[in-house]
Amino acid sequence: MQHGKNIRLFGHVVASAGEKEAGDFTTVHARSLLAYLALHPDVDHPRDRLIEAVWPGRLDGSARNRLSVALYHVRRILTDLDPWFEHAFVSGRATVRFDSSVVSIDLHQFRQSVAAARASKDWEVKRGHYKAALDLYTGPLAPDIVAEWALARQLEPSEMFQEAAVWMASDLEAAGREDEAHALLSSALDVAPYSERATELLTTWLTRTGRYEAALACAKRLRRALSAHGQLPSRAMLKLIDELNLLLADRIPPTAYADEAVLTVLASDARTTLGDIVREHGGQYSTEGGYGVFANPLMAMEAGNHLMQRSPDTKALVHTTIMAPDDPVPTA
User: Fold this and answer.
1) C-alpha–C-alpha distance, residues 192 and 67, integer Å
2) pTM
3) Fewer C-beta neighbours within 10 Å, C or N terminus of the chain?
4) CA–CA gap between residue 251 and residue 131 (Å, rounded)
5) Sign of CA pseudo-dihedral 295, 296, 301, 305
6) How far apart are CA 263 and CA 274, in angstroms?
């Protein structure tokens, strides 16, 4: 029996009891300790394992005392919130356990909902479980914990959340509620922008309805999100980005995006003359990349024509693209 006591790991580590919440755990170590216990409930954790999780490489003489102090702070904060939390901690001289039958944990409710949705053959039941999963996922798993064990656990629930969003969006589209499907996927990608399947689906819908600029912005958001984690989209997604760039190469989008800009790139193998021509026509030249960037596409075209007149045998590329300020600029 859980008596309405909850530990939230999505978004931020927060404990709640009814209307009351506690998210300030005195120290980052106390918060990290609670997150570790809640991520691995119903296990008798040796105290040395907890020390290594919270203070990696610090198994010295004072380590057990640090663990006792952090555990004391966590228990005091939770029991001040509601005395019932005391029943969640089962600790002895050698081990500590967190009892999930006493306190509900959003991560485990979320996984149970997704598992139930996958297993059900009843459409209404499946829809209910996926909706419950979407409601529980309020952000990445324990984003305020930077330990390796926390970071390693973030990807799986993010992928499960995107699975639920894609299924629900497809269900809405089948019911003729495509605008709701678009809104659902957009909000899902705002929370966890790493799903290529969700991005592909939303981008396809936007392209089909002629909203090419929005489709390109959506695809590039995925690329930036993956790039921030040292990853790349699939070749199919990169090809889609190139195709949308080419589709928009002869037009300037009528609307401006807060994080996007329309730039025209002039690249060539004639580097000895390219720099001078780029600067003559009001562009900025990169000596390292061997290309010029123009805010005005007409200036880029004039610079390209000037270059071809001066060096007829040269190879050049003029390419208009929607790109974020930190996007890599394409070269020839």
Assistant:
1) 33
2) 0.67
3) N
4) 40
5) negative
6) 17
Sheet with 45-46, side-by-side order of all strands: 45-46, 95-98, 89-91
Q: Which burial class, exposed, middle or buried, applies to 318 when counting CB atoms under 10 A from its CB (0-12, 13-18, 19+)?
A: buried
Cβ burial of 189 (10 Å; 0-12, 13-18, 19+) is: buried
Q: Please count the other Cβ atoms lying within 10 Å of the Cβ belonging to residue 38.
A: 22
pLDDT, tens only, 140-156 = 889 888 888 888 888 88
The DSSP-derived string for 252-268 is --SS--TT-EEEEEEEE
Task: Identify the pLDDT of residue 2.
Answer: 55
Tens of pLDDT, residue by residue over 159-197, are: 899 889 889 988 998 898 988 888 888 888 877 777 788
Q: Give the C-alpha separation, 133 to 127, whole Å.
A: 10
How far is residue 99's CA from residue 108's CA, in Å, rounded to a whole number?
13
Instruction: State the amino acid at position 188 in one-letter form.
Output: A
Q: Would you say 277 and 307 are in contact if contact means Cβ atoms under 8 Å apart?
A: yes
Residue 10: name the closest of 46, 45, 39, 40 by CA.
39
23 neighbors 13 (Cβ within 8 angstroms): yes
The more confident residue out of 38 and 2 is 38
Sign, CA torsion 9/13/19/25: positive
Residue 42 backbone zone (phi > 0: left; psi -120 to 50: alpha; other: beta): left
Q: Is 192 helix (H, G, I), strand (E, B) or coil?
A: coil
What's the confidence (pLDDT) of residue 259?
42
pLDDT in tens, 29-64: 999 999 999 999 999 999 999 999 999 877 666 888
Rounded Cα–Cα distance for residues 313 and 83 (Å): 82
Pseudo-torsion of CA 244, 246, 252, 255, nearest 10°? 10
